[in-house]
Amino acid sequence: MDRLTSAQAQALFEAGGFIIISDLPQGSEFGIDGTYHVTRRFSGIKFLPPGLHLITWSPPPSSTPGPSTIPIKSALLRITKPKERLVLSYDTATESIATQDTDQVSIISDDHVRTLDPELAPYPFNNSEKWSQLTNLIDERILDEVVGPDGRVDGIMLVDGEEDELGELKKASLRNGKPLLDASKGEIKRLTFPKFDLRRSWRSGAVGDEVTRYSQDKSWLMGELIKKKFDNKYMRILSYLQLSFVLLLHLSSYSCLMVYKRFFALLTRSADLLQSPSSYIDTGTTNDLASLYTAFLRSLTAQFDALPETIFESELPEMDLFFLDELEYLRGNLGSGMVDWIADDRARIQEAWKLLQGVVVKWRWDLKPIVVGEAVDDDDDIEDGEYAPVVVEE
Question: In the UniProt record, does the keyword Membrane occur (predicted)?
Fold first, then answer.
């Protein structure tokens, strides 16, 4: 942020919160909401605004055994209150961070915080709007469900139910890390995103044409999730999408990549739901779908903006092909699905799509405009793709 006057600094000191961290080795990487510092004399973050924060750290390479071992990124996800003082301590033996109890935090006086001021980095307000756009639908309920009340997660943590998606080599590489334990259960901790299988997206007992239809169109599956797992709260789909993306981007979590792709494809491939929401959700309206998909496109715009330009050449090879295929399905499904929508709802989608078109030009993608009444013929691709149907005898 720009250099502050003394009056501005005093105002931020009185209004903002603080993250105080002790014992973090010099040369560690410390991050707050996607902005990173390589530490020297570092005691935390000042002027912290209330809200959701992702606090990340990884030890310097020299402190990790093994000549070729890459330090694992760990994180604490926390929704802070106004003026909260979050006190953390680093344990070199476990390369983990512990939070101090409330009684200890309460004795951190203003005078003590001021003595640490030269070693406190200001919160990166220049990045706060982008961080908010990436995380605006993640609330405490979602965090508790997926990450747990302690908020601790790392890049090698598996997602419950996703193990079958990991190849044997990937499993072996994950086992080389130090797994976090769930203190309440004494077991290796896992992330708990909602489970569903895109390769079996029809109702139990369906046969023939019904299986064929809903193996291609995920509307039945999406409707069931909204009704039975998300309490008819459509935006929860995007809450999980946002959380999986943030953990993928900032912790390089392969397991979260699998989750992200499932939620992404669920949204892009539910064609009939866009045309007839009440056929799948008793209280469903096209206005509800317009709000959901407008928010989806805005989230995608923020996510694509956050991805480095070289991401598909390094960390996520071939993910660009996944995005291009799924966005083409989405474009066609919105084009055919919005035919009977009111003009204002169609305009919201068109505006959000244009913003998305603008941000992907950094990869020279040429997203075609949405044409109302035009569909995309993608049945063959869906039959043979990553989420090709798997029929199980019952």
Answer: yes
